[in-house]
Amino acid sequence: MMRRLMAAILMLLAMASPAVAQKRIALTFDDAPRARGPFLTPDERTARIIAGLRKAGVRQAAFFVVPGNLAAPDGAGGEQRVAAYVAAGHVIANHSFSHPALKAMTADAYLADIDRAGAWLQGRKGLRPWYRYPFLDEGGTDKAKRDAVRAGLAARGLSNGYVTVDGSDWNIENLAGAARRAGKPIDMDALRDLYVETHVEAAEFADRLGRQALGRQPVQVMLLHETDLAAYWIADLVAGLRKKGWTIVKADVAYRDPIAKLRPDTPSAQGNLLEAIAWEKGVPAPRWYERNTLSIADPLFRARVLHEGP
């Protein structure tokens, strides 16, 4: 009798308690196999990313592949590097063949580029039916083109490999590369801290935006690139996220969130999905994390990493 009474009390307490917040996020990397960055060879970078994800206990990240990169000067061994990610438990998906901007070409030509990448990816282990738009460009203000490509993806069995969290890591790496080429001293500890802090803040911003636009916490998808910075500090980034209460989940889990089925209708189709949802629902700007504005991000890099004045 006492056990049944205690069970009933615990059930009532559970029903009365508010739902526990769930901050879940998947990690995704664009442009594999990417050209070399400022610090590492492509082979070194891949090995370090795999080791960093393993150290951080990340069971599955997604790598969005641009097969046309194999023909570039740093493309040698790229097929093996992509296969190494899969062998480590991660998954791959289509990021186009030549990384074009949809705004710069016809829908038919754009879909042909997707097909060319699909032909290279077909039959490979770890392949998922996701397509990520280069530059997150879904056609800008051209709604007819936007809808034609959306229909073309659906006809090919591909879904949008969207993102909801973006810290413009490509820009941080570009700035580091430019500084290195110029022979400027780079404070590597400060660079690590800026990289980690930027992406943790971007995730926190997206969590707030999701609550505001959806009234709930969607599973977030972080946009990263296959960079030297990720190779150095992906484990530090994961630790920073966990310190803020985030759970790292598989990309397979993230793309089962209900927002995966949404097709926001906004005046311009470019950017991350959560921004578009918020725009469609009338959430006022800014709907994007501030460090994605380069006039804010670049001076911050110069001050903190290069210790340059304004």
Structure in a nutshell:
The chain has helices at 2-16, 42-56, 78-87, 107-121, 143-155, 169-181, 188-214, 228-243, 251-254, 273-280, 294-304; strands at residues 23-32, 62-65, 91-94, 127-131, 137-140, 159-160, 165-166, 220-225, 246-248, 269-270. The chain contains eleven helices and ten strands. The protein starts with a helix and ends in a 6-residue tail after the last helix.
The number of distinct β-strands equals: 10
Globally, the shape reads globular
Taken as a percent bin, the fraction of beta residues is 5-15%
Low-confidence stretches: 5-19
Annotation field: number of helices = 11
**Average pLDDT metric:** 94
The helix/strand series, from N terminus to C terminus, equals HEHEHEHEEHEEHHEHEHEHH
Query: Structural class of the secondary structure composition?
Result: alpha/beta
- What's the N-to-C terminus distance? 73 Å
Radius of gyration computed on alpha carbons:
21 Å
Which range best describes the helical content: under 10%, 10-25%, 25-40%, 40-55%, 55-70% or over 70%? 40-55%
Describe the structure.
- This protein is α/β, with parallel strands linked by helices and 310 residues long.
- The chain has helices at 2-16, 42-56, 78-87, 107-121, 143-155, 169-181, 188-214, 228-243, 251-254, 273-280, 294-304; strands at 23-32, 62-65, 91-94, 127-131, 137-140, 159-160, 165-166, 220-225, 246-248, 269-270.
- It has eleven helices and ten strands.
- Strands 1, 2, 3, 4, 6, 7, 8 and 9 form an eight-stranded parallel β-sheet that branches. Strands 5-10 form a two-stranded antiparallel sheet.
- The radius of gyration is 21 Å and the shape is globular.
- The chain starts with a helix and ends in a 6-residue tail after the last helix.
